[in-house]
Amino acid sequence: MDKKNILIITACGVIIAALAIGLALSMSRTKKAEENAKAMEEIAAFEKEEMEEEYEKLAMQYDGYTSTLSNDSLVRLLSEEQQHVRDLLEELRMTKANDAKKITALKKELATVRAVMVQYVHQIDSLSRTNEQLAIENKQVKDNLAQITLQAEQLQQEKEQLTEVVTRAQMLETSGFKVTWLNERGKQTEHYKKIAKLQINFNINKNVSAEPGEKTVYLRLVRPDSEVLGNAGTFTYEGAEVPYTLKSDFEYTGEQEAFVLYYTVNQLLPIGNYRAEFFAEGNMIGEYGFKIEK
After folding, report:
1. Co-location of 106 and 221 in the same domain
2. CB atoms < 10 A from the CB of 195, how many?
3. Do 249 and 184 fall into the same domain?
C-alpha cells in the first residue's frame, strides 16, 4: 500500500471516530435533556400539589373561624374570601403542572390570599381580646351590682331591724295586773255567783322613749269559750276591727300610770280560764291569765 492510500485510510478513520464521538455526545445531551425535563415535570407536579394543599388549608381555616364567630359582618367577609380561595383551588386543579405561566400566577395569588388571611387573623385576635376584656368588665360590673344589691338588702334589713327595735322601745308596756271580784255593794267577794263587777288593776310602765300625749288603752276580757265579755265597740289591730271590753283615755307623760277599770257583770260568768289583753297605739302591750272558779 502506497503512502497516499495510507493517508486516505487514516483520514477516514479520524473522520469516523469524530462522527462516532459526536453522535455519542449528541445522544448523551439528549438523554440529559430528557432527564432534566422529567425532573422539572416532577418538581412542577410536586409544587402544584403543595399549592393545592395550601389552598385547602386556607379554606379549612376559614371554616373554623366562620363557625365560631358571632360578628355577622366579619363572618360575611370571611365567607366571601373563603369562596375566593375555593375558586382559586379549583382553578389550580384544572391547570396542568407544566403550564408554568398559570402556575406562577396562581402562586402569586396564593401569597396574596395568605396575606389576607393574616390580616383577618389579626383582626379576629383583636376582636377576641376586646370581647374577652368586655366579658371581664361585664362580669366585674355584674359582680359589683350584685355586691351593691346585697349591701342594699343588708342595709334595708338593718334599717328594718333598727326600726323594729325603735318601735319596740317606744311601745307601752303593762304590769301589776290584778283582778278583784266585787259584789253588788262594791265589796270584795270570794263567791263567783255573787260577782257583780270585775275590778281590773294594772299599770302602764315608765318609758322615756315613748312619745307623750293623749292615748287610749283597750282591754279585752276573753272568756274560756274565746268570746269577748261586753260589747263596748271595736278598735283597729293588724288591719282588722277587733271588739273590746273596756277602754280608758289618758294623758301619757312617760312616767308610770296606774289604772283601775270596772266591768259590770250582767250574767253568771262561766267557770274556767280567762285572758286579759291590753292594746294601745295598734300594739298588744300586755296579756295575762286569770280564773273564775267556785
Report:
1. no
2. 19
3. yes
Which cell numbers in the block locate residue 235?
278598735
- Domain contains 119: yes
Percentage of the chain exceeding pLDDT 90: 38
The residue ranges of DSSP E strands in the chain, in sequence order, are 174-182, 197-204, 213-222, 233-237, 240-244, 246-252, 257-264, 272-280, 283-292
What's the whole-number mean pLDDT along residues 132-146? 77
Provide the β-strand partners of residue 82: none
Segments forming the whole domain that contains residue 130: 38-170
- Residue 166: what pLDDT? 47
Q: Is the pTM here over 0.85, yes or no?
A: no
Asked if residue 30 is part of any domain, the answer here is no
Q: Are residues 210 and 152 in the same domain?
A: no
Query: Of 144, 170, 196, which residue constitutes the final position of a domain?
Result: 170
Q: How many CB atoms lie within 10 A of CB 140?
A: 10
**Are 158 and 215 within one domain?**
no
Question: Are 203 and 176 a contacting pair, CB within 8 Å?
Answer: yes
pLDDT of 113 higher than 70: yes
Q: Is 20 exposed, middle or buried (0-12, 13-18, 19+ CB in 10 A)?
A: exposed
In single-letter form, the type of residue at position 264 comes to T
As for how many domains the chain has, the answer is 2
* Alpha carbon distance 164, 212 (integer Å): 19
In this predicted structure, what is the pLDDT of residue 2?
A: 64
User: Is the CB of residue 264 less than 8 Å from the CB of residue 196?
Assistant: yes
Q: Are residues 106 and 227 in the same domain?
A: no
pLDDT, tens digit, for every residue of 27-60? 666 666 565 556 556 666 777 788 778 878 877 8
Q: Is the dihedral of CA 56, 61, 67, 70 positive or negative?
A: negative
Same domain assignment for residues 154 and 220 = no
